[in-house]
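Aim 2, interim progress. The first record below pairs a target sequence with its structure tokens.
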Amino acid sequence: MGGDKAIITCALTGVLTDPAQHPVPVTPAQMAAEARRAHDAGASVMHVHFRRQEPGMGRLPSWDPDVAEAICAAIRAEVPEVILNLTTGVMGDDISGPMACLERVKPEMAAMNAGSLNYLRTRKGGAWAWPPMLFDNSVEKIGRTLKVMDALEVVPECECFDTGIVRSVGMFQEVGILKAPSHISLVMGVASGMPARADLLPILVDEMPAGSRWQSIVIGRQEVWPVHARTAELGGHLRTGVEDTFYLPDGAHVDGNGPLIEALARVAREAGREPATCAEARAMILGH
């Protein structure tokens, strides 16, 4: 499928990554500066998490609509042409925080976790890296989230952590809680989810509803890059950023999002595809 444009998304910052130890932006000014670097390197979509703004609290997430508004306003002022894609992932049944941020910001897109996952990881010796957690996304919770997105005209990006969740997206369409065409993200590299393996991609694409637009979200180190390359070859869209990795294909550690997006743009071009401009991405995702 070489020759068509590849939408590149930058995942600007992580969920719990400590800014005292890693190059993740926190403040509105930092987020806007990183969005500029990512845009200039080839990204047309910015996936946005929010962090607490109090001194020393930047490693923790925030669902304060004032924080969301300040960060997104700063990004829009710096790079008004980019598409904003907000996180909505939250454990538990209460979605009021993410929905309040969507209502305040009114982004073009938002991530929508399309199924539940036992969020697990082990250490050497057999101990849990953290107490086992359930990232719970029931159909009822998904339905409430999609209802708000639909009312706000926010395009949902269905994040899928395993094959069954990919298949569930088609069922959401069948029962009418999700409009076609679907926008699917294959989340790979989470220890208890799908591994970062390029050979899985054709199977996963085959299980998607017909006409879906898809991308790979690949979490890890150098092992993420062969998956990006295969995604580009198969016609998928591309995402990276310091939420997903800190490492370039040669193992070099990055100081922010710009070098990662530059590397991903090279991956797209090596597959015969140019990165989509913001206007081209807007037309593909939003139809205008």
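The second target in this work package is listed in the same format:
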Amino acid sequence: MTPDDLFGLHGKLALVTGGATGIGRMAAEGLAAAGARVMIASRKLDACETAAAEINGLALAGHAEAFAGDVGSEDGIDALARAVQARTDKLDILMNNAGLSWGAPLGEYPYKAWARVLTVNVTGLFHLTQALLPLLKAAGTREDPARVVNVGSVMGDREKSGSTYAYSASKAAVHHLTEVLAKELSGHGVNVNAIAPGPFVSKMTAFVTADEATRDKVGQSTPLGRVGQPEDIAGCLQFLCGKGSAYITGAIIPVSGGINVDTGPGLFDAAKS
């Protein structure tokens, strides 16, 4: 048994929402490196085309293609599902990565922000998965299931930023929904897992990761002492989508540098000092 037997994705078709930048872009490149044909979708077609061209310029085993897609409305989800259905009758991998955040102090958090974040991060994820279920079921078998990988967050498990109320709540919902769907689809050849990333360089975290000095400070606050790198996401996706994870469903994988086990000072540390 070779690494390619366990983690190769040759002949597999993947859809990555929000795949033009950030964690989605890292995942798309990792999937293509393992041999997959990767469809990159986001609201900005030009950004998707740029990302696909960059990935294809790396001469990887797989390749990428771009099209526009918006999971922030019912019409957008329907249009995205139709675009995928026009390209294939089977879908091996769906990565629900598209998401947004909003920060504001308690007492000033806008109603519209809460609604918008939950709509994209939770409602869009659920309804796109539901719309593409026939394609996922057509691709999956008991021995090699289709894969749904949802993007949660370490903030869905740990309180790390009080000003992002809707984001943290939405990611907790993503984690729970992942377990619900994993149970419901377990007999249909579809495995459902999630990743819970910590700090990675992206547009969403640009306010703390764009500057190298600030990024280093953020990294030092994690148990492993650094922010995440593209290969951290790529490797995790290759594992979750490859044959080696065929017996795993309903898992929430922390890709967080150990933040998931960072509970603060020990209970009796003060007495020892």
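The chain has one domain: 3-254. This observation will shape the mutagenesis plan for the next reporting period.
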